Amino acid sequence: MGRVNNEGIKKIKGRNILLLNSDILLLLNSVKILSDYLYTHTSHPIAVGNVSGASMMVSRKVLDEVGIFDPDFFMYSE
User: Fold this and answer.
1) Who's near 15: CB < 8 A, 6+ residues apart?
2) Which one of 39, 45, 53, 69 is most buried, counting C-beta atoms within 10 A?
3) pTM of the prediction?
């Protein structure tokens, strides 16, 4: 999963990146709400052991600072 997500991330030009599992149902305006929140709140990268979830939005700025996924993680360990 890390390697595949990295391929997509490298192609995305937007200010935020949204990663979703294929079985996610998006609620009305949920992507805009998340994007607006990231835009209006200063992002400070922090080190974490792992992140669990079926969706994740991260600012391009943060990814540029901390890097993308470790390509050696395949699944459930991103």
Assistant:
1) 35, 39, 59, 60, 61
2) 69
3) 0.72
Over the range 25-64, which residues count as b (16 or more CB within 10 Å of their CB) and which as e? eeeeeeeeeebeebeeeeeeeeeeeeeeeeeebbbbebbe
CA trace torsion 49, 7, 3, 31 (10° rounding): 40
- Farthest-apart Cα atoms in the chain, separation: 35
Rounded to whole angstroms, the Cα distance separating 28 from 30 reads 6
Dihedrals phi, psi of 46, to nearest 5 degrees: -130, 150
Question: For 34, which DSSP code?
Answer: H
As a whole number of angstroms, the distance between CA 64 and CA 23 comes to 28
